């Protein structure tokens, strides 16, 4: 599980009163968002907040394992619309509220939300990617339950209950009910893990293929076997409240992540050749000392400024054509030069200063382009532009996009220190101005004197830029940049499996 796929929101803004059937009141004032992980970090999120209260509706029953007889459903609060409270009636509106809570429609995700008090005020939440292997479900369930309950206790109060969501689309040609049955053991493990810590799960919903199912209600009159259609988009009380509050759902998590995915072939083949050539020319200079290394840094910053100006002058078409248009404005050689230049920590930190004002928007577009140009086997090089994209998004108040970008950076390179620090700062709800002022101070101080000895490998995570082989050399196996040098800092002796597991752990987010 990955810390960057989880979110913990410790700001209790939702209320849930437990009665036979849910009547959920939402008090849009709290926010939540995050990636997945075994040990999630506290994260206030950026979605709406839920304030639930259950009204009578005896048809919806819960199994005894869920909690007290009176705890038959849950409510939630999303966003903050002054002091207004919104009532969500039943699991349908609770499922409809989830995207407003996160800021996007979750994909392949487990979301746990804490409830406080007799009326079920929403508090913290944890979001994590669903582990692919069922063998991991038990340990992940226990870790998530501990993370949410302990995180809530340390930040506000111990939860009185939990609402569980499992979100996954069925495979091509399959029905949503197949997802429900496949994930049923995971839902039970999560309910058992929470119950073992004396916190009941009042509602467990599976959302798949535009429908939802309850794992807690055995009554087919209100929870039919084929599921219940989700509320039509924009027609619910939550949608109306979110619109009044200026809250927007950005699409699905998969759509947000797709904006950073490497370009496909045949363009990827051309970009790979450009990266081979740029690496052969630049890596030795970056690893050098003094004037030559400083010259590469200055050239990289100058090129970045030129590309940002080019993007700013160009008309930005609406999505999804915007990313395609931006890709056309930057050549393969320019992208390769930038990608290798940003592997130097000091150069990257200078580029990080473009995170506010008029520079923020073109900088974010540039970092997205560069992330898409990190084709195999240069995937780990995307950690730098992805982290910069996360920084710009966080600095400009787009926390859902920030968590997506930082989570992807840590998937690419679990040991990337800058991404880990920013991700934790975001999860801890720190003011971005602290980072902005720090980077401004560094920019005002200017670069270190050229005479000062440069570190051998000034790259985050203790990982040097990959030294590309000569263009005519045979290509190594996919996924392993040729000529890889050994790390000089950071964790040592970690196997590939260990690093992947570490990356998943680091990708969990708390809200």
The largest sheet, given as strand count, sense and whether it forms a barrel, is: 7 strands, mixed
Question: What portion of residues belong to β-strands?
Answer: 5-15%
Number of strands: 9
Distance between the termini: 16 Å
The radius of gyration is 24 Å
Given as residue ranges, the uncertain stretches (5+ residues, pLDDT < 50) are 1-83, 449-507
Which bin fits the share of residues in helices?
40-55%
**Biggest sheet, strands in spatial order?**
8-7-6-5-3-4-9
Describe it:
With 511 residues, this protein is α+β, with helices and mostly antiparallel strands. The protein is 41% helix and 9% strand. It is built from 16 helices and 9 strands. It is elongated and about 70 Å long. The two termini are 16 Å apart.
Keywords:
two-stranded antiparallel ribbon; 511 residues; disordered N terminus; alpha+beta; seven-stranded mixed beta sheet
Question: What order do the helices and strands come in, and which of them pair?
Answer:
Layout: E1 23-26, E2 86-89, H1 90-102, E3 109-116, E4 121-129, H2 137-155, E5 161-167, H3 176-196, E6 201-208, E7 211-214, E8 228-229, H4 237-245, H5 253-258, H6 267-286, H7 291-313, H8 321-328, H9 332-341, H10 345-351, H11 360-372, H12 383-395, H13 399-412, H14 417-427, H15 432-445, H16 496-506, E9 509-510
Parallel strand pairs: 5-6
Antiparallel strand pairs: 1-2, 3-4, 3-5, 4-9, 6-7, 7-8
Helix pairs in contact: 1-4, 2-3, 6-9, 7-9, 7-10, 7-11, 11-12, 12-13, 12-14, 13-14, 13-16
Summary of the model, kept short:
This protein is an alpha+beta fold. About 40% of the residues lie in helices and about 10% in strands. The strands form 2 sheets. A 7-stranded mixed beta sheet has the order 8-7-6-5-3-4-9, sandwiched between helices. Strands 1-2 form a two-stranded antiparallel sheet.
